[in-house]
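Issue 218. Parser rejects a valid record. Input:
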Amino acid sequence: MEENIIHVQKISKQFKISKREAGMKNAIKSFFKREYKTINALDEISFDIKEGEIVGYIGPNGAGKSTTIKIMCGILVPSSGECIINGYVPWKDRKKYVKNIGVVFGQRSGLWWDVPPIDSFELLKDIYEIPQKEYEKKLAELVENLDLDQIKNIPTRQLSLGQRMKCEIVAALLHNPKILFLDEPTIGLDAVAKLSLRKCIKKINEDTKLTIILTTHDMQDIEALTNRIILIGKGKILYDGGLKEIKDKYQDKNLKEMSTDNVIAKLYKELKI
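Output the parser choked on:
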């Protein structure tokens, strides 16, 4: 039985933001005396994730997804609660911890724009202090799995979005992390590129037991890659369980099988988020 590699217990996060009413008078007033209000971005969220799981972490914009991921990556410190990932507290052991995670953001690049991906990979090898033989073995494995042999020497700016995303995944996995955070990995991709990328992600998970946290608004990504979803809304965990169970619950018996988008939309409506 797989052990929990991620343990999140009653994590809360508050942000203090300044209040200011419209108008020049109030703008001048705010220079001398500021009033603040507290926003609860996360409200005692808890979940555990086992090694090798692919979990979809979903919710509408402003639900708390990004705040959760930033805490789990060690970028933000929670206001309260406990988070232990692969034996580390992310924000306390950050230098050691980051060697255990990989991060891919669909709208940001971890590659150097004007040089080929292979040059970025070489630089990341030095940053993560990966031994040469280990680097060569891992790179060869990833290049083969993601079919990058023909494009790894082409400048990044000349690659298609789908090709670049595959290279981003290689960059995130070169140091052999235990956990991969994928944020909107298929955003902007055409249908063929999406299918190809999903297939590659699935194969890497099956071959290496890599734990993957997937945040996306594309329910086809969720359906293709995950069996479990964690739904967050207004800073609270509203559902944690199987995708099939939700589909069975909301499926209209008199209609053909509903799409995952429609099922999740029904769930959002019922939960009023």
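Fixed in the parser; the record now loads. The beta strands are 4-19, 35-50, 54-58, 80-85, 101-105, 179-183, 211-215, 228-233, 236-242.
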